[in-house]
């Protein structure tokens, strides 16, 4: 029997080795069916340029945010690698050695990131304010890693930011009955980046509930009428990432008879288009640490 919301629950398919990427996935409109969000996920374990749409100096006609994160659940504060990101027509170089985000407004020339040293695999995310992923060549002859190094309070300093983390964060549903996930989390939004993306990233080590609270003390669903929302569930086990190594119960639909439960045991995406009621979310079982990412285009 078909369920009303089953098209919103999508199991992620990973691609194998590609250059210095051990494992990757491309989630665009053909997969997510969202117009305002797409992303590229990569587990990077070697030096060199991280494969994207092109190796040339290029621009996008949409805003983009790059994330560089540790893949070690026991040491999420250290990236385990060093890399360079060249921004602007002159290729101003920025060195990254700890977890960072890089905001690339539409029309900004840049090269794909280049890993210069790696001690252990790390996670790379390119999150786009578009359902389609494409690039326009800005300069066929430009060469990466030849521009000047960024200076203190340089032209793009505000675009390159290290991440701040919190433990046992109650998320944004209130502190009264918050439950610890056992991991750490970080959050960025449009007020700090200037682009229409709000992203919360957290590691999950313990079973817990997540979602708005009703007046009766029970978790309730909620809805957004003016933006889409994407929920990603990934394993931090580098050798078997398609498996979630746990179970998450994600509710879709308004409280009552309309609500459907989706039990996630594989790496998955839940796509909540505007107007669709969703949550609560319960992590029923956590055998190995998970990565939970919430993205909305506002």
3D architecture notes:
- With 298 residues, the chain is mainly β.
- It folds into 2 domains: 12-162, Jelly Rolls, CATH 2.60.120; 166-296, Jelly Rolls.
- The protein is 3% helix and 43% strand.
- The chain is built from 2 helices and 23 strands.
- Strands 1-21-18-23-16-15-14 form a 7-stranded antiparallel β-sheet. The protein has a 6-stranded antiparallel β-sheet with strand order 2-3-11-6-9-13. A 4-stranded antiparallel β-sheet has the order 4-10-7-8, with no helix packed on it.
Class based on secondary structure composition and strand pairing? mainly beta
Mean pLDDT: 93
Biggest pleated-sheet summary: 7 strands, antiparallel
When the domains are counted, the total is 2
The overall strand count is 23
CATH topology of the largest domain: Jelly Rolls
The first-level CATH class of the largest domain is given as Mainly Beta
Question: What is the rounded distance between the termini?
Answer: 35 Å
Strand order of the largest sheet: 1-21-18-23-16-15-14
User: In terms of per-residue confidence, which ranges show pLDDT below 50 for 5 or more consecutive residues?
Assistant: none
Q: Write down the secondary-structure element order.
A: EEHEEEEEEEEEEEEEHEEEEEEEE
């Amino acid at each position: 029997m078909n369920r009303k919301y089953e098209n919103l629950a999508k199991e992620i398919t990973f691609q194998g080795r590609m250059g210095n990427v051990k494992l990757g996935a491309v989630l665009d409109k053909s997969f997510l069916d969202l117009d305002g969000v797409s992303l590229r996920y990569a587990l990077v374990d070697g030096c060199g340029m991280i494969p994207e749409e092109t190796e040339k100096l290029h621009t996008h006609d949409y805003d983009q945010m790059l994330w560089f994160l540790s893949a070690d659940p026991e040491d999420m504060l250290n990236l385990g690698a060093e890399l360079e990101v060249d921004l602007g027509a002159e290729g101003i170089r920025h060195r990254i050695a700890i977890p960072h985000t890089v905001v690339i407004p539409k029309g900004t020339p840049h090269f794909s990131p280049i890993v210069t040293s790696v001690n252990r695999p790390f996670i790379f995310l390119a999150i786009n304010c578009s359902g389609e992923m494409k690039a326009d060549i800005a300069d066929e002859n430009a060469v990466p890693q030849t521009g000047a190094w960024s200076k203190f309070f340089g032209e793009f300093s505000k675009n390159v930011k290290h991440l701040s983390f919190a433990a046992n964060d109650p998320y944004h549903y209130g502190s009264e009955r918050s439950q610890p996930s056992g991991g750490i989390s970080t959050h960025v939004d449009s007020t700090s980046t200037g682009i229409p993306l709000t992203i919360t990233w957290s590691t999950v080590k313990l079973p817990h509930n997540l979602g708005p609270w009703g007046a009766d003390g029970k978790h309730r669903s909620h809805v957004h009428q003016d933006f889409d929302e994407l929920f990603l569930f990934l394993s931090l086990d580098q050798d078997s990432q398609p498996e979630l190594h746990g179970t998450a119960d994600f509710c879709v639909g308004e409280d009552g008879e309309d609500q459907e439960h989706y039990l996630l045991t594989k790496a998955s995406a839940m796509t909540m288009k505007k107007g669709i009621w969703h949550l609560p979310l319960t992590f029923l079982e956590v055998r190995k640490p998970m990565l939970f990412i919430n993205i909305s285009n506002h």
